[in-house]
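writing this on my phone so excuse typos. first protein, seq and then structure
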Amino acid sequence: MNETFPANTPQPPGSGETFPDTAPGRTPTPNTSPAAAINLHSVPDPRPRLTITRRAVQSELARRSLPDFARRCVPGFCPTPFHTAYYRTLDAFAKGLVRRLIVSVPPQHGKSLGSSVLLPAYALGIRPGLRIALASYNLRLASRFNRRIQQLIDSAPYAELFPDTRLKPLHGGTGNKKEAAAPSAAGAGNLVRTAEEFDLAGQSGGLLAVGREGSLTGNTVDLLILDDLFKDALEANSPLVRDNAWEWYNAVARTRLHNGSQELIVGTRWHEEDLPGRIAAHERVVGLTDFSQPGTLPPDCWLMLNFEAIKESPPTPADPRGKGEALWPARHSRALLDARRRLDPHLFEALYQGHPASKEGLLYGEGFATYDELPATVVKRGNYTDTADTGDDYLCSLCYAVGGDGMIYLTDALYTPEPMEATEPQAAAMLRRADVREALFESNNGGRGFARAVGRLVPEVRIAWTHQSRNKEARILSNSATVQRLARWPRGWEARWPELARDLLGYRRLYRANRRHDAPDALTGVVETELDRSRRTIRAVGFRSPER
């Protein structure tokens, strides 16, 4: 029997020849019979021709992976190796291979586009029955994500990829006959589409956006996304805000989940007791080092991926950068990152490296600058006093001079646990000795009475008092870099005020690890007063002129 080749099949050398069937061990020989010399190209191919275009291939790839979906639906999307790894991790989450995921990403590295816009849209495309809850530090930001997701689902590329994932048109009705035949569980006329919530037409899926501490009552959540639950360092450094966020997560968000629900926490690390930090203290968390891990972990285990802005940990398949390499050098170069690190090493370690607790653990790890003489120009001589809160606390009263260069030069200090009746004359003597003209006392815990008593002893000094209502921990931690940059101490100050130096230089970033907070609290008050006096509300003022 002779064998012929279809017209669309690649021909072997000498395509005008035909070859007989070959038995095992038999050497094939050309059939030179004239009857067998058939022109292969004259034989029609009965099989239908299958034409696959490049666009069809790209569409199929976009349905199968989040990175390709992003390339198809986001104009100009050019992923770096970091973005490819990030989106590959989110892709495993979207497909249900990871039940609980934590991702830490530095600021301005494209975190939210992937986690809070592309991921929800893609997940609803491949799993249109999902009920998604998306939360951020306030409703305004969460609603912004919601609107961008809706815009993406409404786009032509998305409709081509996932025609069954549709929204209610903005002007009412879905305008789709297929939906009339297969209405959503809520009914075609009851579809919701607002800046906070939307339902899918003809499907049971949808999305609800909420701010931190927002309500999820009555909503079953299949997929929970928490993107940046803290707005800034002031919020993250507030124990009250952190406790409220933790309580909302446990009492509200988690109560909406079921056995098959998934959780994604993505954001920038601010504090060692933020949500990822507290979860790590109570539950099992495994670091993502290889992309073979998704699908192998038990349901109650968290998978965590931390992208350092400057690579310091060992290379892994998930992040193969060498030590010292920037995460996104085209946007955030190593030189730029180094400059940011010099401004505030502790903050950089948290925000950009994903390690909220500094290696040293000290708030003022590098110490303070010192001076030998005051500058030639002094624009103000002032004082800030924080009275003792409890019997174990210290009174901290700091005298200072503001130089023409904007620096704050500490000139004298009173740091003692003695009672007010003993410290009143000491404080008055120090104010006179330092030639202070204005003194501000915190009125908390008897401070107003202390200020009046000191004012009677030094009538030439203008005495004012203020109620400090802001959280002490948040103030101290948030302003630490500014305090270190502006405050100057006289050379040898450690020997002159040893207890003050010990409590300042030994102060740890973990607030509750410190025995006392008086010294950094007062020093922070000095800097706050001179940087932004308008923020303070002066409750009362006492003043006595020298003539009286």
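second protein below, same order as before
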Amino acid sequence: MPEETDLRKWVREETKKCMADPIFFMRKYVKIQNPNEGGTVPFDLYPFQEKTLNCFHDDRFLLILKSRQLGITTLVSAYSLWQMLFNSDRNILVISIKQEISKEIITKVRFANEHLPSWLRIQATEDNRLSLRLKNGSMIAATSSAKDAGRSKALSLLVLDEAAFIDEAKSIWTSAFNTLSTGGRAIVLSTPNGVGNWFHEMWVKAERKQNDFITLRLPWQLHPKRGQSWRDEQEKQLGQRGASQECDCDFLTSGTNVIDLKILEEYSSNNIHIEGDPRPSMGVRDPIEFRYSNFLWIWELPKEQKSYVVSADPARGDGSDYSAAHVLNIETLEQVAEFKQQIPPKEFADILVNLSTEYNDALLIVEYNGLGPAILQRIVDRQYKNTFYSSLDLKVVEVQRQIVNRYYAEEKKLKPGFTTTISTRPLLISKLEAYFRERIVDIHSSRTIEELRTFIWDAGKAQAAENYNDDLTMALCLGMWVRDTAIRLRQEGVILSRNILDNIDVKRSNEANTPIYTAKTANTGQSTWQMRVGGRPGDTESLTWLLR
């Protein structure tokens, strides 16, 4: 400590050093709470924390993708205090997913200010759980992530914590951006939470230089006291997905995506790994043909003797989504064509009929919800002969009872199309996940893969992330689910034809030697137009619909 006569000069010089260099200020004067190291200790910055602090200071808009337990929240708190001490009327707002989390930063700022030397500390004029105002007019406030959380007077610094987990992050940023227009800064930080959320979207755009954010990635390996044993312990305690989310700064291995993002990356890079079956042709590739103003993509034209299914998910009709369809090879489950466009129902129905007809009278399945009834009515009016029909009562879903013949459907009280309900949706999602997990389906469309990247579990329901669509995804689900039915129906058709032919005798009359076709002798009491469909007595089915 200097002599009394030099005290004022020394205080003035120290204050200048602190004002000019936040690293000097924190290393020498900031105290933090660390229960693992004896309570109150000096804030001894690690090298990666110093580099991060320089980014705080140099970059106006900063995105930080971080691992847990790196002390970044403490660093943000100390930087906020530095801003408040050496600048008058600074206004700092902290927003996090929960008020309790954002309040933690206020607590850290308060603690650090109270433990400064008296000549450096500034007295608080307002001090409560969610805000701290200093005598020089600077203040920091904390709030939760409500839609209008960013609406306030002009901000000097916005801290958006765990942004990847904030549902209203886009709305918050939109409202807060105007409050930063006078020169304010933003620090947006989070552990990853998969893809499709606002944080991931802004990160991708920043990497492409499409916005003003600078990105900073802080994985667990930066901490000098962390080794592989620490990482292994995290996986043991949190599980593979949880540890990836909390430690690895990897969008692909974090989050709650329905389809594993690593699998989707294999499709994108044509790198499907199946032991003993590399199938180098699987995955995304350019179409060989475009139609309907490039909205229809084609990878393979129809081949003789091949069977196809066309699955369609109509738009809801509110202008926010698209009408989408896939053409799949039933045997190989290869995507051979895809359509996606905002289009009137009648035009979409005509495209579906034309496409189905072209692909060898493909089995056509249309989702009934939304604009489905209008589209299906048009398909029925055009008398397309291979439309998928389903039961009017879907309380019990049994694949084997789905019928595709229109006349037989009338007899059995079926309706055209497929209705997605709380009973059927899990079946569709399960089929989607299983076929991708086993690398059975072969998807060539980059549009479909990009949609699947943002198809997530949200509150127990599989759906598109906010501001994204799942039209191609749900159309694909329908196609894969009904594909099993289509194979069964085709096989039943072969068996049916064989049984009919086996029950016909050809006799020739004496007059003009004309062939006469008659049914073979049937069992007593059994109609000649009844076919046995099971092993038990009475397991028969009427074939009279063939005559209509």
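The two ends are 106 Å apart (CA to CA). thats all i got for now
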